[in-house]
Amino acid sequence: MLGLIISMIIIGLIAGFIARALVPGRQHMSILATILLGIVGSFIGGLLGFLIFQHDAQDGFFQPAGIIGSIIGSIIALLIWVKVRTNRTAH
């Protein structure tokens, strides 16, 4: 269990950092927010992988993805976050 938590933190940090580097614009996020972005992205990537390929690694519908899926999911989550934040500050 501890290994899973540590790996989720490390994958989350890597995926969140790469997503922030690929998405244009400046995102004001702390390291903790970047890790959470990557972890959320991992689950989004797992969900997309399940929906596209219609099978999983026995983890069910809601599962973490590998690094590529985590990066893709993190980019999607970051784009949504930027859009919501922009709409909130525009009003």
UniProtKB/TrEMBL annotation:
The keyword Transmembrane helix applies. GO terms for cellular component: plasma membrane. The chain crosses the membrane at residues 6-23, 30-53, 65-82. InterPro entries: Transgly_assoc. It is a multi-pass membrane protein. Keywords: Cell membrane, Membrane, Transmembrane, Transmembrane helix. It is found in: Cell membrane. The keyword Membrane applies. Belongs to the UPF0410 family. PANTHER family: UPF0410 PROTEIN YMGE. This is GlsB/YeaQ/YmgE family stress response membrane protein. It comes from Cryobacterium tepidiphilum. The lineage of its organism: Bacteria, Bacillati, Actinomycetota, Actinomycetes, Micrococcales.
